[in-house]
Amino acid sequence: MKIFIDTANLEKIKEANSWGIVDGVTTNPSLVSKENMDFKTLVKEICKVVDGPISAEVMGDSAEEMVKEGKELAKIHKNIVIKIPMTKEGMKATKVLSSEGINVNVTLIFSAAQALLACKAGARYISPFVGRLDDAGQDGMKLIAEIMNVLDNYDFNTEVIVASIRHPIHVIDAAQMGADIATIPFDVLDKMFNHPLTDNGIKRFKDDWAKCENTTKRPSKQKNTSKAKK
Ligand code: G3P
């Protein structure tokens, strides 16, 4: 499963990218609004950090506006993916942009029916929002299972980005269902590294190491010791 980071914060993107596990970035208007930078400049900077798909969302309501914005954004970098909302106008724009070779991520997917329509319109990616469904008292991961079942029956060139992730269990559930991508907020990604037994294990190894004789220590230490003896 590919891991995207779901943020527009450059520092967080750089930090997560340094961990060696980031395949792409998703942004949205709410995330961008938290950053003190012009949108296009910010997107350009993100493209310099991560060599993978970078989603940037259009704000127009009509297909014409979305296509115009999408084409402008696509000029920024070859890795730009145009994020378009799941509306009728959005699907018209998806059809136009995808026919011209511009990758589209259809966002705000909350049903398998919407997912199917986005695939038919030529979306390269679809983003079902699991956390927001959970918040509304529905089962977000059940939607992912439904979408994966539907897509397994056909040959769409569409990858499923599990979005609106709230905790590591969402990520593991997504991986077990075979979702192509999880787009993960920085804090959730950070939590995925942690397990108390790992911390305890490292501490115990260090304590035992500190107790043992010099002769059993690492070759580099032995080298230093022998040099010191000479
Ligand atoms: O990027 C879209 C999605 O991941 C937003 O998540 O937390 O605002 O529901 P959230």
Please describe what this structure looks like:
- Helix 1 runs parallel beside helix 3 and helix 4 packs across helix 5.
- Helices cover 52% and strands 16% of the residues.
- It starts with a strand and ends with a helix.
- It has an 8-stranded parallel beta barrel, surrounded by 7 helices.
- With 230 residues, the protein is α/β, with parallel strands linked by helices.
- It has one domain: Aldolase class I (TIM Barrel), CATH 3.20.20.
- The structure holds SN-glycerol-3-phosphate (G3P).
- SN-glycerol-3-phosphate (G3P) binds next to helix 7.
Key terms for this structure?
230 residues; eight-stranded parallel barrel; globular; 12 helices; binds SN-glycerol-3-phosphate; alpha/beta; TIM Barrel; disordered C terminus
